[in-house]
Task: structure prediction
Amino acid sequence: MLHSRIGLMIRFGVTLLSLLLLGTGSGCTMLTRFANDPGGAEFGKTFYVGGAGPVGLVVGTESVPRGLRQAGYLGAIEVYGWQSWVGGTLRDQMDAYRNRREASRLADRITAYCDQHPGRPVNIIALSAGTGVVSWALAALPADVSVQSVVFLGSSLSREYDLAPSLAHVSGYLWSFYSPTDPILRYAVPITGSVDREFVWGGVAGLYGFAPPEDASNDVRALYKERLRNLPWRQAYARAGYEGRHTDGVKAEFVAAHMYPLLITRRQTPESLDSTPSKEAPNPAQAVPTSQTTTESSGGSVDIEPKRDLR
Result:
């Protein structure tokens, strides 16, 4: 009898919690709200947008804000919950309609902050499928609203996804960390398709870096050259915990040592660096060698992607 009552109470508690979470419109929004740190809004604001599913909801929610604070970041921090309560990882990766709706909600959050704190810098950090939500949110911003810096980690967007509408709302740089040895992007995304619903025959951005669409105009290519910076995995990142795996980049040590400097970097002249990768995707079975041609600029190693013979 006692066990029966305990079981009934547990089931009632779980049901009640589920109803409360669903009643907010998004259970994930309620859960991530505990990680928000609104202090310092007068100095600026950084949004963190995690990856798909329950893992994406949890990973980085605590470590990214902690890493920013360790590095001395003074602005407000908001963990933006967009993940679905029903459907999990597959739905978050594949439900383009819902994801674009969540992106519109994020765009509203960014616009509201900019209206309340005009001139204050806004940054965004995004992981995996969250990079798709951020890309659509940026494209949905009003013409007079922009963010300063964006950092993508292990993006599950297709490599040639057209970032031009998003880059138009980035006043600084969009930095994209990628690793050819990321197991999630190598083995899972080819099955599910990328978050922009391509089937990644041309590669995944988080494995190879972004490249302009094949039919991109000269203006689009110039925009990529000016505002996009692809950052390949390198051995130095391992010392801060990023060993090339899918969620390594949200560790507090890596955020503090390698990500925070990028957020406060102002854009250089368009002639500074050409970070546009070649159209040829590297062999994902091989890690990027530490001797790969790179250059230190604006706080990070910027991939200038020499062409490779992949035959």
Notes: DSSP finds 13 helices and eight strands in the chain. The first strand starts at residue 45 and ends at 49. The CA atoms of residues 52 and 201 lie 21 Å apart.
